[in-house]
Amino acid sequence: xxxxxxxxxxxxxxxxxxxxxxxxxxxxxxxxxxxxxxxxxxxxxxxxxxxxxxxxxxxxxxxxxxxxxxxxxxxxxxxxxxxxxxxxxxxxxxxxxxxxxxxxxxxxxxxxxxxxxxxxxxxxxxxxxxxxxxxxxxxxxxxxxxxxxxxxxxxxxxxxxxxxxxxxxxxxxxxxxxxxxxxxxxxxxxxxxxxxxxxxxxxxxxxxxxxxxxxxxxxxxxxxxxxxxxxxxxxxxxxxxxxxxxxxxxxxxxxxxxxxxxxxxxxxxxxxxxxxxxxxxxxxxxxxxxxxxxxxxxxxxxxxxxxxxxxxxxxxxxxxxxxxxxxxxxxxxxxxxxxxxxxxxxxxxxxxxxxxxxxxxxxxxxxxxxxxxxxxxxxxxx
Length: 382
Ligand code: FAD
Ligand code: UDP
Hints:
Helix 1 (11-23) packs parallel to helix 13 and helix 3 (99-105) packs antiparallel against helix 4. The chain has two domains: 4-79 and 194-258 and 329-381, NAD(P)-binding Rossmann-like Domain (Rossmann fold), CATH 3.40.50; 96-179, no CATH class. It is 33% helix and 23% strand. The protein is globular, with a radius of gyration of 22 Å. By secondary structure, it is α+β, with helices and mostly antiparallel strands. The chain is built from 13 helices and 22 strands. Strands 8-7-18-19-20-17-21 form a seven-stranded mixed β-sheet. A five-stranded parallel β-sheet has the order 12-2-1-16-22, with helices on one face. Flavin-adenine dinucleotide (FAD) is lined by residues 7-13, 31-34, 39-41, 56-60, 219-220, 245-246, 264, 327-328, 356-358, 364-367, 369. Keywords: FAD, Flavoprotein, Isomerase.
């Protein structure tokens, strides 16, 4: 008999599984509905031998030493400072908007003047969310804010969320602040990397433990029954422990209505040329229907490839239709309320734990997810 059943083999499920199995000597069953492990971090070679991220480009970035050390047990890293540019007119400008960008969009005299202004207002090295910058009363600062709002945020956010920047959670646009320095990197974290052989081998090593069984191609409800606040497994009530990383509304057949999500349609294209855009990621902040193009070889560091593969991301509203994947929780009060109704019902199960971006209805990066999973596993083993 298993000590724990874990639903989902993404970063949340895999990290928890490993610690329970290894540190707690617990027998663990990981149930995964897809035909592979790794959740949305999954990567695989396409038919041209190019390593692609099937569910969107993923970069592991963190300032947390514990998380870095934990994952480093299962992989070595290809470290790089991840940089993104945005296509604005015929220019490619660095994003987040920073002092390099400022000097690209204004003439030298004005840029020098505005630079001094920004530094005196916020301090060198500071990171200011666009929605905060727009509140500044100084007309010069407002001019910059307006430029950034119009050319970096407005159209991209409309595509990604179907809403204006001021209509979505400030937490979301705050992920890409205006940076008062000459640092072009997209993230500020100490470590910015991808696993040197890809994410999937990292997950394979993590789940490779005598106390872990992984069942692929298995929908949890095919082997577990959830009924009247109880969980049944192999015909018997199962109270040992379950960690659920799937969508919480699905668990209850969406009885209170679906939790809203944004989804993405990924269009992969291969070109028989050395490079398509010369950058790992180009954001389309003022034109096109897609939000960004990722050219994988520049992200993964893969050398000597046969041509190059890119992916374009087309956002749309998730409806729950077969084949659609809920990618981004839409953070607002109303959705929080709906989430909490499901959570209350989930709390009726014995030893049942919600973990992960779908089960918690949150916008998690890999590192935050990993840390949360480490903490849950440790709590369970106390
Ligand atoms: P998931 O990875 O979604 O794993 C959940 C797993 O559970 C899936 O494999 C699913 O098939 C399985 N499952 C669900 N329901 C069931 C069920 N009923 N039965 C059986 N199995 C089930 N983070 C970063 O740090 N850096 C990035 O660059 C980055 N890029 C991103 C790009 C995109 C486009 C998106 C959408 C997210 C990105 N993220 C990034 C966030 C990152 O993907 C998440 O933090 C991480 O995947 C969360 O892991 P998870 O285990 O909670 O969920
Ligand atoms: N954003 C934007 N323009 C950009 C980059 C980001 O408007 O060039 C906004 C957009 O609303 C996006 C959010 O900032 O959803 C967060 O961006 P991030 O790159 O962190 O999104 P993710 O990689 O998680 O999709």
